[in-house]
Design brief:
It is a single chain. By secondary structure, this protein is of the alpha+beta class. The chain contains four helices and four strands. The chain has one domain (8-105): 2-Layer Sandwich (Alpha-Beta Plaits). This is Muconolactone isomerase domain-containing protein. It comes from Pandoraea terrae.
C-alpha cells in the first residue's frame, strides 16, 4: 500500500439491511446513482470486500479535506440500503514487521 503523508485511510462498513433482497437494494443504489458517485472524485479505493451475511467492507485512501465529501455521499446514496460505520485506519503490515523483528531480537 502506498499511502502518502498527505492522505489518510478510511474503512467503511456497509452492513446489508436484510429486510431488503438483492434486487431491492440494487434498484435503490441505481436510483441514487451510487455506482457513479461512490467513491467521490479524488478518493481511491484500496480494497472492496464482500463479507457474506454481513455486507461490504471498503477501504478508501483520501486527502483529509475530502472526509466530509465521503460522509455526505454515504448519507446521500448509501443510507436506506446499508447501515454505515466509518473508521480511520492505517496499514499495520509494516508495524507488524517491526514488532516481529523486535521480538525475535529479544524485545517486547
Amino acid at each position: 500500500m502506498s499511502q502518502t503523508p498527505e492522505t489518510m485511510l478510511l474503512t467503511v462498513f456497509l452492513k446489508h439491511d436484510q429486510s431488503n433482497n438483492l434486487d431491492d437494494f440494487q434498484a435503490r443504489l441505481k436510483a441514487a446513482d451510487w455506482w457513479e458517485r461512490f467513491p467521490p472524485e479524488g478518493v481511491r479505493v484500496v480494497s472492496w470486500t464482500v463479507a457474506m451475511g454481513f455486507g461490504q467492507i471498503v477501504t478508501l485512501e483520501l486527502p483529509p479535506h475530502l472526509l466530509p465529501v465521503v460522509n455526505v455521499e454515504l448519507e446521500r446514496s448509501a443510507w436506506g440500503v446499508f447501515r454505515t460505520e466509518c473508521y480511520p485506519t492505517y496499514d499495520f503490515v509494516p508495524v507488524h514487521a517491526r514488532i516481529r523483528e523486535r521480538v525475535r531480537n529479544g524485545g517486547k
